[in-house]
Design goal:
single chain, mainly alpha, two-stranded antiparallel sheet, elongated
Length: 207
């Protein structure tokens, strides 16, 4: 009886079986994995338009400031004179030319002050508020500059061609230098108008 061995069968309870669950669950099948791809924000072209906006504003400053300086420094005195008269032409002889100088100076100052707003649009191209503000202010400056350039252009036309119905003779044959400088200033002002129109279109595309 002593040499006999006794075999004891130990059965596992359901609670003990639960303790042998694997610590790491097997990975799910490849068919159940959903890949989420985040789309990059579309702001590259808006930033490029904002950079071009700054370049155009600098060009507009040069054109408007050049127009104001050219008109403001325009004067010519003819070499002949009489005892009572001296033939001289200056820009401030005509209120239209004075308004032209003031309007283009205001436009140049505005374009310089608007550059920081345009730089904000480069840093944060998705902002809408600065673009709307620039569109509004650029439109106001287009009206101001166009009025100044159009009024000055009409006077330059009369200076070159005169008006026989009103008995206004052309003076550019005598004041040739004066007319050339005034004409150049008017051309520069119209270039400023074109630049401002391009700025409005750029801001509209960036919205």
């Amino acid at each position: 009886m002593e040499g006999e061995s006794t075999a004891v069968n130990i059965t596992e309870t359901p609670k003990e079986r639960k303790g042998k669950a694997p610590l790491l669950a097997p990975p799910p099948a490849s068919g159940g994995i959903k890949t989420i791809v985040q789309k990059a924000p579309k702001g590259g072209y808006k930033r490029g338009l904002a950079v071009f906006d700054v370049v155009l504003r600098i060009a507009g400053i040069a054109a408007a400031l050049g127009a104001a300086i050219a008109m403001g420094s325009t004067d010519q005195t003819l070499p002949f004179f009489t005892q009572f008269f001296q033939f001289k032409a200056e820009f401030d002889d005509l209120p239209v030319f004075t308004f032209f100088v003031i309007a283009n100076a205001i436009t140049a100052a505005y374009l310089a002050l608007s550059i920081p707003i345009s730089i904000v649009c480069i840093i944060r191209p998705h902002l809408v508020g600065p673009r709307v503000l620039l569109i509004f202010l650029d439109t106001v400056m287009v009206g101001l500059t166009t009025a100044a350039a159009g009024g000055a252009a009409s006077i330059v036309y009369l200076a070159h061609n005169g008006n026989s119905d009103a008995n206004w003779p052309a003076i550019c044959q005598q004041f040739n230098d004066f007319c050339q400088e005034v004409s150049g200033a008017v051309v520069a002002s119209f270039i400023t108008v074109v630049v401002l129109m391009f700025l409005i279109v750029l801001s509209a595309f960036s919205l």
